[in-house]
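P.,

For your records, the input lines for the assembly:
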Amino acid sequence: MSHPTPPAPQIIVLDAGGQYCHLIARKVREFHIYAEVRGCETPARQLQDARGMIISGGPSSVYEAGSPHVDPAIFELHTPALGICYGQQLMAHQLGGEVERGDKGEYGLAFFEIETPQQLLKGVHGRQQVWMSHRDVVRRAPPGFQILGRTATCAIAAMGDPERNLYAVQFHPEVAHTHPGKKILENFLFDICGCVRDWDPSRRIPIVEEQIRKASAGRKVFFFVSGGVDSTVAYTLCLRALDPDHVHGAYVDTGLMREGETEFVRDNFAKLGAKNIRVVGARQEFLAPLAAVTDPEQKREIIGEQFVAVQEGILQSGHYLDADWILGQGTIYPDTIESGGAAKADKIKTHHNRVEGIQRLIEAGRIVEPLSSFYKDEVRQIGRQLAIPEEMLERHPFPGPGLAIRCLCEQTAGAVRRTEEGFLLPVHSVGVQGDSRTYRPALALERMPDDEHLATELINRIQGVNRVVAAVGSHTPLGGMRSSPAFLSEARLDRLRHADAIVRSLSHESGFEASVWQFPVVLIPVGDAARSDSLVLRPVDSVDGMTARAVRMDSDLLDRMTRDLLAIEGVCAVFYDLTHKPPATIEWE
Ligand code: XMP
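Structure tokens returned:
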């Protein structure tokens, strides 16, 4: 497989599980230092060229059987190492200190008191706000280590052995809530590791282009484009690197897209100088097999299968599997990582299957992935340098299965039921609690509560619901509403598409769009005799979609949006989702 070769990493982040490691690597790169993520158990001999190592946080306990460990020989390399959270506990555990379960956990903000000011803490003084997330603690530091600071519940919140260049912190310097975090990372990277600035994504464009030319070796490149940021930037890089006549793309119109999407994609690619983008209409291929399906997992499976069939058909009919073609993909860095440390996550939702033709091309190495060493924000920087319109670069993420997962379906009718806390809506949506999938009804409040924490409290208290919504406008009182059998019909998809376009336009105009990470609009089959559906607004803030915070909006904007949405034919009420992820997910399904 052809990945443009990045420089040798100066910093290696050893992944002890979870998403923490990517945040650390991104923070290091923000200092213009190239960092990569490797499995925790990477042998020391593969790390000897790095200037420094950072052992990440993770969800395990060091004394549990099978928990991630590092090769003990890495501590003999004299390469500086920084342990963060689980990384600190692992250093203590593997170097002769002691780790045990703390009397109580420490989650969120804490105050760090410096005891021994030295190199790692240069320029950091007194009492500092830090962000903690741990239960286990280091009880005794390993021989040779000094205790550098403490918090009220954690006697060893930072430790170091300057002789061996080994340092560790229990808090998370990589998050913004840790006020001295940036300074601590800077001290480690420049003063302790001696790193030099070698990384600027936009200056890598000529190198990436040269590597695309090498990978294509005179062959033509074919892409499936989605209209998303990654495939657009990857395609544009190929257009610049190669003869534009030799770069082809296909966009599949599934009938499950947002209003104006196909035209938007067509126009944007034309502006970028693409001559060979084919729009493949496949509405019926997707809608016909979905017509009687209500189960969200089954919907996803059918859509996945149809994508495979349609893409396979395009590959065959365009002769893109022939020897004079290679496949281009917009894969970005986090998607390429195979980490030794991460535990296998429970399946929350089914994702797309692999197309056999694509699999064959990958196996034959006939693939080019120009963005495989970049994070999303770095892809945007490159896009800006390539003069790709901001409107395209700042797009919110949109799921592959499209509006199908935002258009809820039900087999049976049911009444909205009043309970002590609110109204139980007789429709189910997907959530994630304790790392497992749930599929439960939502609780609706009659109005927007003042208390921001009420949704979380209610879900913790009431068994059997995974979301809390507030009614923000309705043609009928909540108690008089009911659900009815509903499917993925053209009429319902059009209703949702129309609502989504109204929301997008108002939130764009008002600037609200820029303040949220994503803003799904969901259609649920709950209403009255005259209007069988309602809408749910789901604006969220997030970093990577793994967790998300429900975001409120200004009441003038909300009133205007609600009024326009209630004017749509067939729409009975508008709800506002107040639930974070977890316990809910971003999409309703
Ligand atoms: P959930 O609903 O799991 O969503 O909290 C997390 C993020 O993933 C997006 N999403 C998808 N993206 N294909 C995609 O490309 C999919 O099948 C898919 N399902 C969910 C979702 O929009 C959110 O940003």
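Two observations worth noting. The chain has three domains: 11-192, 201-401, 407-577. The longest helix spans residues 296-317.

Regards
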